[in-house]
Design a protein that fits this description.
Distance between the termini: 42 Å
Helix content: 40-55%
Structural class: alpha+beta
Shape: globular
Radius of gyration: 15 Å
Number of helices: 4
Strand order of the largest sheet: 1-3-2
Length: about 80
């Protein structure tokens, strides 16, 4: 169980976001976001990269699956109905 804040954080990571942006959107401190992102990263639900001074977080395919969202990219072929 990941709780409502981490669930909302995962939803926000449909696109890459910085720690500061996540803190503003979630209305929590950057330290709180860092704690949540560390837990989600440890579970393989997000990954984090550095872009200059900024830290960017993004949802992994596993994180998308947890939310019931099919990850982008190639998937199984679906025959055309016709």
């Amino acid at each position: 169980m990941i709780g409502p804040t981490r669930t909302e954080l995962l939803h926000l990571l449909a696109e890459d976001r910085t720690t500061s942006e996540l803190a503003r959107r979630l209305r929590v401190s950057a330290a709180t976001v860092s704690a949540h992102t560390a837990a989600l990263r440890g579970a393989g639900l997000i990954s984090t990269t550095r872009a200059g001074k900024a830290v960017l977080h993004h949802r992994t395919a596993l994180g998308s699956l947890l939310l019931g969202i099919r990850p982008a990219g190639p998937g199984p072929a679906v025959p055309n109905e016709g």
